[in-house]
Amino acid sequence: MNIPERSIFLQARQGVPLAVQRRSVDLASARLGVLPDFDQVGPTFHRISVTGTSAHGIPITVFAISDAAPRTSGTRTTSATSTAATLSAVREWAQNLDERLVEEFILHDDLTGHHVQIIAADTIGPGDIPETFLNALTWEREIRDGRQKNRWSAILPSGHHLRVFCI
Questions:
Q1: Which residues contact 144 (CB under 8 A, 6 or more apart)?
Q2: Are 115 and 160 a contacting pair, CB within 8 Å?
Q3: How far is CA 137 from the centre of its chain?
């Protein structure tokens, strides 16, 4: 990744969720008056960033990177206890969901970490997904071969990766 001149690079110690790191990006976003971008920059890394110009005309880029979707190593580092802790961590966010709009709520254990997947009920259309499931989260709609797909990615307040599918 090329770091533009006059950029601020936030690097947290290992294990700090992107949700914690993003607070600084959100503060910069508010000061710059620009919405942050969220994207997956590799198979194991996500980035949230904001680029804008300060009141003094200085171009500023602020971003944070995390390994919110860790690569499967084949060696289990998760446990029943960590799975229960993950469920507890995402509970506060999930309890605000309208259960009539959730076809499936899945917690995936990929041996080294957890991520959440939601399959939306067929009563909800793709245009309603962001407001229904992703409100107050930094998210992106997946694009493949130049076409938008009915899949969205986000980082939950707990720092876990969320994928939402509309079938």
A1: none
A2: yes
A3: 7
> Mean pLDDT over all residues of the chain?
76
The CATH number corresponding to 80-166 among 2.80.10, 3.30.460, 3.40.50, 2.60.120 equals: 3.30.460
Tokens representing 63 are 């971003």
Task: Break the chain into its structural domains and give their ranges.
Answer: 7-66, 80-166
Number of H helices, E strands in the chain: 3, 9
Angstrom distance (rounded) from CA 119 to CA 164: 6
**Contact indicator for 22, 30 with CB cutoff of 8 Å:** no
In the block, tokens 């899945």 appear at 106
Read off the pLDDT of residues 138-156 as tens digits, 9 standing for 90 and up. Answer: 788 876 666 777 888 888 8
Q: Which tokens is 113 given? A: 């970490």
The pLDDT value given to residue 72: 46
Residue type, 47: R
Structure tokens at 54: 């300060």
Query: Which residues sit opposite 39 in a β-bridge?
Result: 47
